[in-house]
Structures are given as structure tokens and as C-alpha cells.
Specification:
Among the domains are: 167 residues, no CATH class; 142 residues, Histidine kinase-like ATPase, C-terminal domain (Heat Shock Protein 90). The chain is 62% helix and 8% strand. The protein has 14 helices and seven strands. The protein has a five-stranded mixed β-sheet with strand order 3-4-5-7-6, covered by helices on one side. Strands 1-2 form a two-stranded parallel ribbon. Strand 6 and strand 7 form a beta hairpin. Keywords: ATP-binding, Kinase, Membrane, Nucleotide-binding, Phosphoprotein, Transferase, Transmembrane, Transmembrane helix, Two-component regulatory system.
Length: 456
């Protein structure tokens, strides 16, 4: 039979999977891509600065301070390159061209370290390792693996690193220094001088001291920033407190006018004969609105008054109370000369609104309070005068002649802030400042009639 005469086929090796060459090719491509990515990251790492890109002391107030790091680095470069070339050529027998290349590679990056210390360190550590390999091949009685120039340049770059980089980065740099020094030191001849321990110790000290200085400077900067913020918040709180105080004081003035409106509206039907019924109802509506306004003002006053502020029962003072204020201040040890308009001119004060009257008194009170706090014993002159449209107040004191009065408690305690707010309220102006002889001057100008300033 044909089937019996057919010889059996020899055994064949199983065919390789068609995907094996493709798998090797893919693995090779992945490895190549990984190497490229690593080189790209390394290049970006060296070309881009870590952290701040600006040079060291770039924000110093003076130009010579900003140039100082660059000048110092340039001095080290100018000194290390020729010394390195001479030492490698004469003591280690290195070729002049190679010695020059090593000297430039080990010292020139110090200029880069002023602004990019981490990238400069990467270049220097590679150059130092190459220089150490060259020095290890020299004879005995020579410092190895690190020369003195390498130690000096490396300590300088470590100082620059410590002023810019984080603790983790500095620790990694020092560990790299330790490992490289120990590995290269293992190939040192028994007769050569070991410099690996010296570099480890000095680099560690430089990194530690620089980090401590940088952290101390950062803490001081944060403290200054916090103090600035606190001062701004304190000034803002003082302004708000003074505005609330002014609003509480003006409550009495406005409440008085509202009370007058209520009384006039309630009594109008009895004082005026022959009023029509519509007019009587209108006066009644006016009186009701005035009472409701008084109630709302009392509620507002309760909101403006803090928990530790007692209710004020005394009437708000005015210019008529100035002699009493001056008398109390004189008893406290402040000599005062008060100058006021004559009686024939005082009648013009009828044009002064209650708000202006109160503000004028408070300005003088605060000025005398500042004299007692900052210029105790200084002779003070208070001048109150009038022109056609304004009430003029001038308070001038000389230099202090005594010690501050610890019992002084007059005024609001907010000084010029309170004065400016009160003057702004009535639409006036105030000018305050020191005098050449050490005294102080406060000059306020307040309108005699109410002035619509358009400001709240």
C-alpha cells in the first residue's frame, strides 16, 4: 500500500514563536528610550536651577553687596586655577594640557555656583574625581586622593550650596562626598597622605554651618514679615475702634436732633391752630418715624459698644469745656497757654455744628494726651481762632523736659489716627508733624457750617 511504502518524516524542532524577535526589539527600544529620558533629565537638571535662580545676595540694598559673592568666587577661581596647574605639573608629573583642563574644570564652576550651586557642584564633583584618579597614580608622600586645591574649591561650593538648598539635598550631597572619598581612598598607596577624611569633615562642617546661617536668616525674615503683618492689623484695628468710638459719641448728637423732631412733630397740632386733618396726620407720621429711628439708633449703639465699654451717661463735651480740660492738664504738670476768640467773636460759634464742636474738643484733648505721653513737661500753646468759613485749632508743644506721667489717661489713645478720622468726618483738614526744635505741631481746620463731603 502506498501508505506503508511512505517513509516516516524526521522529527522537526518546534518553530520559534513569531513574537520573540519582536519582543527583543521592543525591550531594546524601551531600554534606549529609558537611557534617553535619563540623559534628558540629567541635562535639564544641570541647565535649570533648583530653587531660586537669582544670584546670592541679589536683593541686597547696595550694589557692592550684590556684587560681593561674584567677586569672591572670581578671586577663588583666579587663585585656584594657576595653583592647580603648577602643583599637578611639578608635584604629580601631570601633562601641562591635562593639568590646565583639570584646573579650569575644578575651579571655574565656582562662578556658576553663585546662582546655580547644584549644577556647579555636579560639574565640580566629576572634575574632582577625574583629578583624584590622576593624583592616585603619582608617587608617595603626596596628598591623595584629594589635593589641597580640590579641598578648598569643594568647601567653597559646599558653602554656596548650603545657603540655597534644602536639608535633604545637602544630606545627599554629603553622603555622595563620603562614598566617593572612601572608594577613592581605598586605592591610595600606603605611603601617600590620606586627604579623604579631611574633605569629608570640612565639607560636612561647611554644609552644616551654611544651613544654620540660612535657616536663621529665614527665621528672621519670617519674624519681620509677621511683625509687619501684625503692625498692619494693629493699625487697622485701631482705625476701626476709633471709628466705632466716634459713632458712639455722635449717637448723642443725632439722638438730640431726633428728639427735637419728635417733640416738634407731637406738639405741632397743639401749637398751630387751624391745621387740617391731613397735616395733623403728617405730623403724627413724622413723630412716629422719629421714634422708630431713635429705637434703631439705640440698637446700633448696642452693637458698636464692646463688652468692656461702659455706657456713657455724661453729655458730649464741646469747646466750652476747653478751660476745664486745660486746667486738668496743667495740674498734671504740663504748662499750657490757651488763646481763644473774644466774646464778641464767640457768637459766631453758633454756626458750628455739634459734630464740629465735639471734634474740635476731641482734637485738642488728643493733642494734650500725646504731649503727656511723648513730651512730658513741654510748654504747650493752644490757639482757637475763626475766619469767615472755618474754625482753626493750633496746638504746639516744645521739647520734653520731664518724665512721662504714668497716671495719664485722657484722650482716646489713638493719637493722629483719631484726629484724622474726626476731621474727615466733618469735612475739615488736619496737619501734624514734628518741629525742628524737637517739639510737635497739630493744626486743624474745621468748617463752621456743615459740609457735605460725600464720604461715609
Amino acid at each position: 500500500m502506498s501508505s506503508a511504502s511512505t517513509p516516516p518524516e524526521p522529527d522537526r524542532a518546534p518553530p520559534r514563536p513569531a513574537t520573540e524577535p519582536d519582543g527583543r526589539r521592543v525591550a531594546l527600544q524601551r531600554a534606549t528610550a529609558g537611557v534617553r529620558e535619563g540623559l534628558g533629565r540629567a541635562g535639564s537638571f544641570l541647565s535649570a536651577p533648583s530653587g531660586q535662580a537669582e544670584p546670592l545676595l541679589a536683593r541686597a540694598p547696595k550694589r557692592w553687596m550684590r556684587l560681593l559673592p561674584l567677586v569672591v568666587a572670581l578671586g577663588f577661581v583666579a587663585a585656584l586655577i594657576p595653583v592647580t596647574v603648577q602643583v599637578l605639573t611639578n608635584d604629580y608629573g601631570v601633562d601641562g594640557g591635562l593639568a590646565g583642563a583639570l584646573g579650569v574644570a575644578q575651579a571655574a564652576p565656582l562662578l556658576l555656583a553663585v546662582s546655580r550651586p547644584l549644577a556647579a557642584w555636579c560639574i565640580i564633583i566629576v572634575a574632582d574625581v577625574l583629578g583624584a584618579i590622576v593624583t592616585l597614580s603619582a608617587g608617595d608622600d603626596r596628598p591623595a586622593p584629594w589635593t589641597a586645591m580640590i579641598v578648598v574649591g569643594y568647601v567653597v561650593v559646599c558653602l554656596l550650596l548650603s545657603l540655597r538648598e534644602s536639608r535633604r539635598t545637602l544630606l545627599g550631597i554629603w553622603l555622595v562626598t563620603v562614598v566617593v572619598s572612601l572608594v577613592l581612598g581605598a586605592f591610595r598607596d600606603d605611603g601617600s597622605q590620606d586627604s579623604s577624611v579631611l574633605l569629608i569633615v570640612l565639607s560636612g562642617v561647611a554644609l552644616l554651618l551654611g544651613a544654620l546661617l540660612r535657616e536663621r536668616g529665614e527665621q528672621q525674615r519670617r519674624l519681620v514679615e509677621q511683625e509687619t503683618i501684625s503692625e498692619a492689623e494693629r493699625a487697622r484695628r485701631t482705625l476701626l475702634e476709633e471709628r466705632a468710638r466716634i459713632a458712639r459719641e455722635l449717637h448723642d448728637v443725632v439722638a438730640h436732633h431726633m428728639s427735637v423732631i419728635t417733640v416738634q412733630a407731637d406738639s405741632a397740632p397743639y401749637r398751630l391752630d387751624g391745621l387740617p386733618e391731613a397735616a395733623r396726620e403728617e405730623f403724627g407720621s413724622i413723630a412716629t418715624s422719629a421714634r422708630e429711628s431713635l429705637t434703631e439708633m439705640r440698637r446700633l449703639l448696642a452693637v458698636l459698644r464692646s463688652e468692656d465699654t461702659p455706657g456713657e451717661r455724661a453729655p458730649q463735651p464741646g469747646l466750652s469745656r476747653l478751660p476745664h480740660l486745660v486746667e486738668a492738664t496743667v495740674r498734671a504738670g504740663i504748662p499750657i497757654d490757651l488763646s481763644r476768640p473774644e466774646l464778641s467773636v464767640l457768637t459766631q460759634l453758633a454756626d458750628v455744628t455739634p459734630a464740629v464742636d465735639l471734634s474740635a474738643y476731641r482734637i485738642v484733648q488728643e493733642a494734650l494726651s500725646n504731649v503727656m505721653r511723648h513730651a512730658p513737661g513741654a510748654r504747650t500753646t493752644i490757639t482757637v481762632s475763626l475766619d469767615e468759613e472755618h474754625l482753626l485749632i493750633l496746638v504746639v508743644n516744645g521739647p520734653p523736659t520731664g518724665t512721662p506721667d504714668t497716671l495719664e489717661h485722657s484722650g482716646t489713645g489713638h493719637g493722629l489716627v483719631g484726629m484724622r478720622e474726626r476731621v474727615r468726618l466733618v469735612g475739615g483738614t488736619v496737619d501734624a508733624g514734628p518741629l525742628p526744635d524737637g517739639g510737635f505741631r497739630v493744626a486743624a481746620q474745621l468748617p463752621l457750617t456743615k459740609k457735605e463731603s460725600g464720604t461715609a
